């Protein structure tokens, strides 16, 4: 295997819509590089990157997969590339964020058949948020109805005129076997093995290609004074000079090259690798970013990829492996990482030892003794370092990677363990699952364990992994709505406990006034006892008893909130009174007050924000109205789309993310945040 220096290493995130050919392109690149003997297919379930059983069954990527390869450029330079193949399904956008957090370039795949779709915009936005330079690759050019020029027009209309086609297909659909190189004005004609030879452009392609050549060249030289001056004097820069200038534009985000290929017949695949190596910044040309300090804030610190600096490692994704345990994907931000190193997790405080470094090629582990600054690899058994950790050679200090976009959950199910053994193992298994994927959230709703994620497929795959990896079988049911109650009026009651059964008895009497508070005020306890009717040592017990009664549920079976409990009087016994007696008496009294005054059922209401193309705003508003939603704002988003903000009862949001995707053909962005409780309609049921 070649041993290219970090100066020639690049981590390439393959991002784009589902079905746009990311995994097929990765497979073609690996084969063309000689890393694998033959190409597999997504349909047959034998690709390098889609190797998990859940992916094979669904014929689609569901997680982040790394694939290392060595590449030799046209000038003989040895490069190493780490492909980070990501899912296009919106439920798994967390994997896209993880890949982009360590990528040197984002390779955005766009189908020559489907063109720009919702997933294309999502990938573009994610890359922009991560500050990663982009290259667009129009894939599937060999398929029926492929139309590169239509797609190029869509791309420039959607994302800007700074997208430049550096290649044009010569022939399309089944006839796609050659590419016109816009800078060199040559035709690259492909043979059956994926190699190409150069020929003069065919006459029918000359005019279009030359017009594109002039346009691209003029844009490139306009960014370099010396090249511009020479160009105006009639001296056009060489292809190599144009590429160097264009590479600076790409690194600065001022230009985005558009390439074309077919991962199936390998036309253009080698050119994708060549141009990624030539036009995008190397790993050592991009500083890492971390947040240093305690709490949710912290100051941002740039980290230069210096091989001689402190060792600083970003664990960007962990995956549970049934054979070797936890596998941690990592990028060395600074220093050199070696097998046997001891590092401190600056995020969690845990000490870790690097047991054995390797590079990943799908499920294959390729041994690597060291990883230099800028390189990506993996290590097993870092049990105290979940996704999003920083490992540091420094003995003190708190730090974490720069924040990725928040992805709050929008879909939930209740988990019911299949057996007592499953019930016992479930908490540990869920903790490991959420350590892998921070977009999964686990919480409790009464007696229920609730798993929340970004959609039904996200949650379904997590449940399948619980069974396959951790041996925990669960059934899923709709997540319960967390209803609450509050007292309907004021009630003054007596709570009394009097028991005598030999020896010390139990005696306590409390006089309570229980009344409602304003929504959101929670619980208030007031001690108004005078004259020592209830000794001071028992006051705390009375408050605890009141809290016990409210937490155990009101007449309608739900926890009670927004209540004021005032202790006004009571009685005690010199021998038979105790903390437990007064705690029990207070609980009895509060329950009596709730029964006497009655309770009002409260339902949780969430703040819902939907960002959607303007022409779909009406459909979204109509749907929200049908869900008892109260729209609080409609405004223009920064990208020209419409943003709708509404308050919607949680009971109406059980399948909202799925319905919204159907209504908008996947073009909407959704966030759901718990907001407040409100009086439920009389028809509401637990």
UniProtKB/TrEMBL annotation:
What processes in GO biological process is this protein linked to? ribosome disassembly
Q: Which Pfam families match?
A: EF-G_D2, EFG_C, EFG_III, EFG_IV, GTP_EFTU
Q: Which GO terms describe its molecular function?
A: GTP binding; GTPase activity; translation elongation factor activity
Q: Keywords assigned by UniProt? A: Elongation factor, GTP-binding, Nucleotide-binding, Protein biosynthesis
Residue span(s) of domain Tr-type G: 7-284
User: Which CDD domains does this one have?
Assistant: EFG_mtEFG1_IV, EFG_mtEFG_C
SUPFAM superfamilies, per the entry = EF-G C-terminal domain-like, P-loop containing nucleoside triphosphate hydrolases, Ribosomal protein S5 domain 2-like, Translation proteins
InterPro entries per the UniProt record, alphabetical? EF-G-like_DII (IPR053905), EFG_II (IPR041095), EFG_III/V (IPR035647), EFG_IV (IPR047872), EFG_V (IPR035649), EFG_V-like (IPR000640), P-loop_NTPase (IPR027417), Ribosomal_Su5_D2-typ_SF (IPR020568)
Any idea what this protein is called?
Elongation factor G
Source species of the chain: Agromyces bracchium
């Amino acid at each position: 295997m070649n041993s290219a220096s970090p100066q020639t290493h690049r981590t390439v995130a393959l991002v784009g819509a589902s079905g746009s050919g990311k995994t097929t392109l990765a497979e073609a690149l690996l084969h063309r590089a000689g890393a694998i003997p033959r190409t597999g297919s997504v349909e047959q379930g034998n690709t390098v990157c889609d190797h998990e059983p859940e992916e094979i069954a669904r014929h689609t990527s569901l997680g982040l997969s790394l694939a290392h390869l060595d590449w030799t450029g046209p000038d003989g330079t040895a490069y190493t590339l780490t492909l980070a193949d990501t899912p296009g399904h919106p439920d798994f956008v967390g994997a896209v964020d993880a890949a982009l957090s360590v990528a040197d370039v984002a390779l955005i795949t766009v189908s020559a058949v489907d063109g720009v779709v919702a997933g294309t915009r999502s990938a573009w936005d994610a890359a922009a948020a991560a500050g990663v330079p982009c290259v667009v690759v129009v894939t599937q050019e060999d398929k029926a109805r492929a139309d590169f020029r239509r797609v190029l027009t869509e791309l420039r209309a959607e994302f800007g005129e700074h997208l430049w086609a550096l290649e044009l297909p010569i022939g399309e659909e089944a006839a796609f076997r050659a590419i016109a190189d816009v800078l060199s004005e040559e035709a690259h004609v492909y043979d059956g093995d994926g190699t190409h030879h150069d020929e003069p452009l065919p006459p029918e392609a000359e005019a279009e290609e030359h017009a594109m050549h002039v346009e691209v060249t003029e844009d490139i030289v306009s960014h370099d004074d010396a090249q511009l001056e020479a160009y105006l004097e009639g001296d056009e820069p060489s292809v190599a000079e144009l590429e160097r200038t264009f590479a600076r534009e790409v690194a600065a985000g001022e230009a985005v090259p558009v390439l074309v290929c077919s991962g199936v017949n390998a036309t253009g695949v080698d050119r994708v690798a060549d141009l990624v190596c030539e036009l995008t910044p190397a790993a050592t040309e991009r500083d890492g970013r971390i947040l240093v300090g305690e709490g949710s804030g912290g100051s941002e610190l740039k980290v230069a990829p210096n091989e001689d600096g402190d060792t600083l490692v970003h664990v960007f994704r962990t995956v549970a492996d049934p054979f070797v345990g936890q596998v941690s994907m990592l990028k060395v931000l600074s220093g050199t990482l070696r097998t046997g190193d001891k590092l401190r997790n600056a995020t969690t405080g845990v000490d870790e030892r690097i047991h054995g470094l390797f590079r990943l090629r799908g499920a294959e582990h390729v041994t690597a003794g060291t990883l230099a600054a800028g390189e990506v690899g993996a290590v097993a058994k870092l049990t105290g370092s979940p996704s999003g950790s920083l490992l540091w050679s420094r003995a003190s200090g708190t730090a974490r990677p720069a924040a990725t976009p928040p992805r709050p959950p929008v879909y939930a199910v209740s988990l019911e363990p299949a057996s007592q053994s499953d019930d016992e193992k479930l908490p540990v298994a869920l903790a490991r699952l959420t350590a892998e994927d921070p977009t999964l959230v686990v919480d409790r709703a009464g007696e229920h364990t609730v798993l929340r994620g970004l959609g039904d497929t996200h949650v379904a795959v997590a449940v399948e992994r619980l069974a396959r990896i951790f041996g925990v079988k669960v059934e899923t049911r709709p997540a319960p709505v967390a209803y609450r109650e509050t007292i309907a009026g004021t009630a003054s009651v007596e709570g009394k406990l009097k028991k005598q059964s030999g020896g010390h008895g139990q005696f306590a009497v409390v006089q309570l006034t229980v009344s409602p508070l304003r929504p959101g005020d929670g619980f208030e306890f007031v001690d108004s006892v005078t004259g020592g009717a209830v000794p001071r040592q028992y006051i705390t017990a009375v408050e605890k008893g009141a809290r016990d009664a409210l937490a155990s549920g009101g007449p309608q079976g739900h926890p009670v909130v927004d209540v004021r409990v005032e202790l006004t009087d009571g009685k005690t016994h010199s021998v038979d009174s105790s903390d437990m007696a007064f705690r029990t008496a207070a609980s009895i009294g509060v329950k009596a007050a709730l029964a006497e005054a009655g309770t009002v059922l409260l339902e949780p209401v969430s703040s819902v924000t939907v960002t959607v193309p303007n022409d779909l705003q009406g459909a979204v508003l109509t749907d929200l109205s049908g869900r008892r939603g109260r729209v609080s704002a409609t405004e223009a988003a920064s990208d020209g789309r419409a943003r709708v903000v509404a308050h919607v009862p949680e009971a109406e949001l059980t399948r909202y993310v799925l319905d919204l995707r159907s209504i908008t053909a996947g073009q909407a962005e959704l966030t759901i945040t718990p907001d407040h409780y409100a009086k439920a309609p009389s028809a509401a049921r637990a």
